[in-house]
Amino acid sequence: MNPKLKNRETDQLCEAVLLLRTRDECYAFFEDILTVSEIQSIAQRMAVARMLDEGQRYEDIERVTGASSATISRVKRCLSFGADGYRIVLDRMTGAV
Asked: Which of 48, 96, 54 lies closest to 76, judged by CA?
Protein backbone atom coordinates (compact mmCIF):
# COMPACT_ATOMS: atom_id res chain seq x y z
CA MET A 1 0.00 0.00 0.00
CA ASN A 2 1.19 3.47 -0.85
CA PRO A 3 2.00 5.16 2.48
CA LYS A 4 1.07 8.54 0.98
CA LEU A 5 -2.56 7.36 0.81
CA LYS A 6 -2.81 6.05 4.36
CA ASN A 7 -4.36 8.55 6.72
CA ARG A 8 -7.45 8.98 8.88
CA GLU A 9 -9.59 10.32 6.04
CA THR A 10 -8.81 7.51 3.59
CA ASP A 11 -9.30 4.97 6.39
CA GLN A 12 -12.78 6.44 6.90
CA LEU A 13 -13.48 6.29 3.17
CA CYS A 14 -12.49 2.62 3.04
CA GLU A 15 -14.65 1.87 6.07
CA ALA A 16 -17.58 3.67 4.44
CA VAL A 17 -17.25 1.59 1.25
CA LEU A 18 -17.05 -1.61 3.29
CA LEU A 19 -20.35 -0.71 5.00
CA LEU A 20 -22.27 -0.61 1.70
CA ARG A 21 -24.43 -3.72 1.24
CA THR A 22 -26.21 -3.39 -2.08
CA ARG A 23 -25.60 -2.07 -5.57
CA ASP A 24 -28.24 0.62 -4.96
CA GLU A 25 -26.39 1.74 -1.82
CA CYS A 26 -23.18 1.95 -3.86
CA TYR A 27 -24.90 4.04 -6.52
CA ALA A 28 -26.31 6.39 -3.87
CA PHE A 29 -22.99 6.78 -2.05
CA PHE A 30 -20.92 7.22 -5.22
CA GLU A 31 -23.43 9.72 -6.60
CA ASP A 32 -23.11 11.78 -3.41
CA ILE A 33 -19.32 11.58 -3.07
CA LEU A 34 -18.16 11.66 -6.70
CA THR A 35 -19.06 13.58 -9.82
CA VAL A 36 -20.75 11.75 -12.67
CA SER A 37 -17.52 12.10 -14.65
CA GLU A 38 -15.46 10.55 -11.84
CA ILE A 39 -17.85 7.59 -11.57
CA GLN A 40 -17.71 7.07 -15.32
CA SER A 41 -13.89 7.22 -15.30
CA ILE A 42 -13.64 4.63 -12.54
CA ALA A 43 -16.17 2.39 -14.27
CA GLN A 44 -14.23 2.74 -17.53
CA ARG A 45 -10.99 1.71 -15.80
CA MET A 46 -12.69 -1.38 -14.38
CA ALA A 47 -13.92 -2.30 -17.86
CA VAL A 48 -10.41 -1.80 -19.24
CA ALA A 49 -8.93 -3.97 -16.47
CA ARG A 50 -11.43 -6.74 -17.17
CA MET A 51 -10.74 -6.65 -20.90
CA LEU A 52 -6.96 -6.61 -20.39
CA ASP A 53 -7.31 -9.54 -18.01
CA GLU A 54 -9.21 -11.40 -20.74
CA GLY A 55 -6.28 -10.78 -23.11
CA GLN A 56 -8.06 -8.35 -25.40
CA ARG A 57 -6.08 -6.01 -27.65
CA TYR A 58 -5.63 -2.28 -27.02
CA GLU A 59 -7.49 -1.41 -30.23
CA ASP A 60 -10.53 -3.44 -29.19
CA ILE A 61 -10.47 -2.01 -25.68
CA GLU A 62 -10.29 1.55 -27.07
CA ARG A 63 -13.19 0.88 -29.43
CA VAL A 64 -15.45 -0.75 -26.81
CA THR A 65 -14.69 1.46 -23.79
CA GLY A 66 -13.66 4.74 -25.37
CA ALA A 67 -10.57 4.75 -23.13
CA SER A 68 -7.41 6.39 -24.40
CA SER A 69 -4.28 4.37 -24.97
CA ALA A 70 -2.75 6.25 -22.01
CA THR A 71 -5.56 5.05 -19.71
CA ILE A 72 -5.24 1.50 -21.01
CA SER A 73 -1.47 1.60 -20.45
CA ARG A 74 -1.91 2.92 -16.92
CA VAL A 75 -4.40 0.20 -16.03
CA LYS A 76 -2.12 -2.44 -17.57
CA ARG A 77 0.80 -1.13 -15.51
CA CYS A 78 -1.34 -1.35 -12.36
CA LEU A 79 -2.37 -4.90 -13.23
CA SER A 80 1.27 -5.88 -13.71
CA PHE A 81 3.07 -3.84 -11.06
CA GLY A 82 0.43 -2.27 -8.84
CA ALA A 83 -0.86 -3.05 -5.37
CA ASP A 84 -3.04 -5.93 -6.69
CA GLY A 85 -6.28 -4.04 -6.08
CA TYR A 86 -7.56 -4.77 -9.57
CA ARG A 87 -6.49 -8.42 -9.22
CA ILE A 88 -8.41 -8.87 -5.97
CA VAL A 89 -11.59 -7.43 -7.45
CA LEU A 90 -11.32 -9.18 -10.82
CA ASP A 91 -10.72 -12.56 -9.18
CA ARG A 92 -13.64 -12.11 -6.81
CA MET A 93 -15.95 -10.96 -9.61
CA THR A 94 -15.15 -14.08 -11.62
CA GLY A 95 -15.30 -16.38 -8.61
CA ALA A 96 -11.61 -17.30 -8.88
CA VAL A 97 -11.06 -16.56 -5.18
From this structure: 48
Per-residue pLDDT for 39 more than 70?
Answer: yes
| pLDDT for 97 beyond 60 | no
- Phi and psi at residue 17, in whole multiples of 5°? -65, -40
From the options 3.30.300.30, 1.10.1270.10, 3.40.50.300, 3.40.50.11540, give the CATH code of 35-97. 1.10.1270.10
CB atoms closer than 10 angstroms to residue 64: 12
Distance (Å, whole) CA 74 – CA 41: 13
The residue length of the chain stands at 97
